[in-house]
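queue> pop job 88
queue> type: inverse folding (structure -> sequence)
queue> payload:
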C-alpha cells in the first residue's frame, strides 16, 4: 500500500528497538549534538518561563530549529536502499517506516532527522506550552543517549557524511500527523527500554539505577503523550477530511489500529512486566525508600495521564463516532473503548500508586 506521505523519505528504525548508542559519534557529530542539546535546553527554559511567550521564546525556538537541523545535516550518512526492506506491520507501511540492523552512526542520523522535523513543526503549532516543554525535554534525553558519557567502545563511530541533504519537509496537517508519529515511535522504544532497565535493576537490588530509569521513563512517557497531542494539532473537520480517510479502505487494505503498532506494544509489554513483577504496594515501598516509591508512582501516573489525554484528543477529533476498525453499528464509540482501557489500567495500578483510582469495572 502507499504511505500516507509518499514524498517523505522512508524512516529506518533499529530492528533491535535500541534508540541509544554504545559508541561515541565522530567529533563533528558530537559537537552538533552538544549544540542541539544546549539550544533545546534554552527552548525548554523559555517555554516554562513565568513571563510566558515573548520575543525571547521565538528566538529560542529559532535557535533550536537551527541547531537540530544542523545536527541532522552533520550526522546524515548515506541512506540504505529501503526498497528491499519489508514493513513488518501495515502501520509501518502507512507511516513510511522500515526496520533494519543499523550501526550507531545510522541510528544517530535517523533519530536526529526525526527530531529536527518535529522541532521545526513546533513553529506555528497550536500546542499547549506545557506539552511543547514535555516534548522538548524528551528530545534532550533522546539526544543525550546518542552520545554516551561512558561508552563501552572508546573508538568514535565511523562517519561518512551524506551530501546535499536537508531534513526540511513540506508542511501540512497530514505531514504533521506522520512526522510527529515518527518521534512518538522513537519515544515509545526509549520508554520501553527505560522501564525494562528499571525492572532489571530492582531485580538486582540496584536501587540507584532503578530510580534513574524510572525518572527517565516518566520524561519519555510525558514526551510521547505530548507528541500524540502534537500530531492531533488540527481541527476535527480537517482530521475527518484529510487524515482519517487515509487510514481505512480504499486508501489502505485494512483499517489501521494503534494496537498493532510494534513500538507502543513494546512499551505496553514493559509496563505489564513492571506491574506484575514489582507488586509491593506504594505504602510499603515508601516506608523503605520514599524516593523510589515516588519515582515509580510518577511513571504509573504518567501512563494513566497518557491514555486520559488520548481520550481527550479522540473526543476532539472523532467525537462520538466509532473507531475506524469497528464495523458493527451497535459497537461502542471509540471514546468508550478508550475509557474502558483506561479504567482497566487504573485497576491494575491502584495498589501500586500513592493515589490510586478506586474505579472498578462491573463484571471484570
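queue> result:
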Amino acid at each position: 500500500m502507499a504511505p500516507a506521505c509518499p514524498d517523505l523519505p522512508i524512516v529506518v528504525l533499529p530492528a533491535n528497538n535500541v534508540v541509544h548508542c554504545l559508541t561515541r559519534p565522530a567529533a563533528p557529530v558530537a559537537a552538533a549534538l552538544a549544540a542541539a542539546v544546549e539550544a533545546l535546553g534554552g527552548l525548554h527554559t523559555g517555554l516554562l518561563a513565568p513571563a510566558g511567550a515573548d520575543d525571547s521564546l521565538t528566538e529560542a525556538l529559532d535557535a533550536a530549529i537551527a541547531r537540530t537541523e544542523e545536527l541532522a545535516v552533520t550526522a546524515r550518512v548515506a541512506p540504505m536502499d529501503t526498497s528491499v526492506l519489508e514493513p513488518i506491520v501495515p502501520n509501518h507501511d502507512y507511516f513510511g517506516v522500515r526496520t533494519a540492523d543499523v550501526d550507531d552512526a545510522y541510528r544517530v542520523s535517523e533519530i536526529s532527522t526525526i527530531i529536527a522535523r518535529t522541532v521545526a513543526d513546533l513553529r506555528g503549532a497550536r500546542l499547549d506550552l506545557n506539552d511543547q516543554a514535555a516534548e522538548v525535554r524528551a528530545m534532550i534525553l533522546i539526544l543525550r543517549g546518542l552520545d554516551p558519557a561512558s561508552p563501552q567502545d572508546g573508538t568514535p563511530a565511523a562517519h561518512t557524511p551524506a551530501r546535499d541533504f536537508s531534513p526540511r519537509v513540506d508542511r501540512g496537517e497530514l505531514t504533521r500527523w506522520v512526522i510527529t508519529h515518527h518521534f512518538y515511535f522513537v519515544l515509545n522504544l526509549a520508554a520501553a527500554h527505560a522501564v525494562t532497565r528499571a525492572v532489571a535493576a530492582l531485580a538486582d537490588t540496584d536501587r540507584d539505577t532503578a530510580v534513574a530509569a524510572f525518572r527517565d521513563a516518566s520524561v519519555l512517557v510525558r514526551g510521547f503523550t505530548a507528541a500524540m497531542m502534537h500530531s492531533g494539532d488540527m481541527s476535527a473537520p480537517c482530521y475527518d477530511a484529510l487524515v482519517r480517510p487515509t487510514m481505512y479502505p480504499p486508501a489502505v487494505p485494512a483499517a489501521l489500529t494503534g494496537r498493532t503498532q510494534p513500538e507502543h506494544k513494546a512499551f505496553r509489554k514493559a509496563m505489564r512486566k513492571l506491574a506484575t513483577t514489582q507488586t509491593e504496594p506504594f505504602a510499603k515501598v515508601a516506608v523503605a525508600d520514599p524516593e523510589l516509591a515516588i519515582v515509580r508512582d510518577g511513571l504509573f501516573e504518567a501512563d494513566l495521564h497518557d491514555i486520559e489525554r488520548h481520550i481527550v484528543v479522540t473526543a476532539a477529533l472523532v467525537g462520538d463516532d466509532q473507531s475506524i476498525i469497528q464495523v458493527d453499528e451497535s459497537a461502542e464509540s471509540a471514546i468508550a473503548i478508550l475509557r474502558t482501557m483506561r479504567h482497566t489500567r487504573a485497576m491494575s495500578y491502584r495498589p501500586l500508586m500513592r493515589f490510586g483510582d478506586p474505579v472498578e469495572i462491573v463484571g471484570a
